[in-house]
Amino acid sequence: MKRSWNFNPGPAALPLEVLEQAKEAFVEYGDQGLSLLEMSHRSKTVERIVEETERLLLELIDLPSGYRVLFMGGGASAQFALVSMNFLRAGTIARYLVSGSFAEKAYREALTVGQAEVLASGKAEGWKRLPDVRQLKVRTDTAYVHMTTNNTIEGSQFRDFPDTGTVPLIGDMTSDILSRRLDWTKFALIYAAAQKNLGPAGVTAVIVKEELLRAGSADIPAIFQYRTYADNHSLYNTPPVHAIYMMKLMLEWAARQGGIPELEKRNERKIGLLYEAIDAGDGFYRGIVEKPYRSTMNATWRMADEELEKRFALESEREGFIGLAGHRSVGGLRASAYNAVPEEACKALAEFMNDFRRRRG
Ligand SMILES: *Cc1c(COP(=O)(O)O)cnc(C)c1O
């Protein structure tokens, strides 16, 4: 098989070695005479896989004790609702940093549950910039502050995180978890659907402070309470076992690469190649996001007109590049270079971009 240069925004590229490992377990797991997909989630084997995956994730991000990892369904979109269902009480207000369309969706879900407000928004500026969160004042009637650390669709990423004091900070890190070093302890809850940096679609990792777990609503259905997942080690109901297993393989792969410090260096080199190609040559490619706010995961750009953008998408596909069309809501083009996208793929794309510019510029 010739592997494509996969720049899909999500579900996204996975390391070939992880796919090969998963293939084996697909037919028979260990020497057990059956596959993982056929195994009871109450078996010791599955229990161990879930435990191991939790341990590996906490080790990689080097969080001190006091945090738990939950494995949940429904993608990041379910978390938009669950966060407010669990933590938005009457008399308090959930406050949102609306930095992109996923952040806005999260905010809109909170409005269906209780009182929510926008702390700062980048919408009026076409998502080109991020609000300065360093001086943010958070009122004491705030249930929690929610932010999206990397705006997958627009291609922007926060470098700074607000100091929210005793108010829990909640982060949607779906598209940049494990991609860079950061002070994880600033967050009381982090969630990430797996299909960008953690594995296949079907499971969401929720990293949550025990303190916050205990403060969650107890009067909503059990299946929606974070507490239920914590108390039952994510085995309250049948979890997506194979997706969790693949996340475990991804985490082991990440550790073998040298963990977050090494992945971060690689990611900076990778995205650097793409931004260099975008910035070369007098606005043939125009980055959508202003430079200080550019994402290390998703590079977005526009070209002179939609005709040229379409041609770029078409020709790049012919050359074996996948997933470069921008999100339908912003248009243009986007290259998503998550952890598993190899450096060679970014080199090849940068070369293609330079070549295309010379031919069409
Ligand atoms: C992809 C993505 C989502 C949506 O995830 P689903 O699993 O499809 O619900 C939400 N937030 C961010 C930051 C994303 O990148």
Automatic annotation (TrEMBL):
- Which UniProt keywords are present, listed alphabetically? Amino-acid biosynthesis, Aminotransferase, Cytoplasm, Pyridoxal phosphate, Serine biosynthesis, Transferase
State any single GO MF term. Answer: O-phospho-L-serine:2-oxoglutarate aminotransferase activity
The EC designation for this entry is 2.6.1.52
Pathway, per record: Amino-acid biosynthesis; L-serine biosynthesis; L-serine from 3-phospho-D-glycerate: step 2/3
Q: Which residues bind pyridoxal 5'-phosphate?
A: 76-77, 102, 152, 172, 195, 237-238
Co-factor: note: Binds 1 pyridoxal phosphate per subunit.
InterPro entries assigned to the protein according to its UniProt record, in alphabetical order: Aminotrans_V_dom (IPR000192), Pser_aminoTfrase (IPR022278), PyrdxlP-dep_Trfase (IPR015424), PyrdxlP-dep_Trfase_major (IPR015421), PyrdxlP-dep_Trfase_small (IPR015422)
Top-rank taxon, per record: Bacteria
Q: Which reaction does it catalyse?
A: 4-(phosphooxy)-L-threonine + 2-oxoglutarate = (R)-3-hydroxy-2-oxo-4-phosphooxybutanoate + L-glutamate; O-phospho-L-serine + 2-oxoglutarate = 3-phosphooxypyruvate + L-glutamate
Cofactor list: pyridoxal 5'-phosphate
Which ranges carry the Aminotransferase class V domain?
5-346
Positions annotated to bind L-glutamate: 42
Subcellular location(s) per record: Cytoplasm
Q: Which residues carry this modification: N6-(pyridoxal phosphate)lysine?
A: 196
Q: What is its biological role?
A: Catalyzes the reversible conversion of 3-phosphohydroxypyruvate to phosphoserine and of 3-hydroxy-2-oxo-4-phosphonooxybutanoate to phosphohydroxythreonine.
The entry's family comment says:
Belongs to the class-V pyridoxal-phosphate-dependent aminotransferase family. SerC subfamily.
Q: How does it assemble?
A: Homodimer.
Entry protein name: Phosphoserine aminotransferase
- State the encoding gene: serC
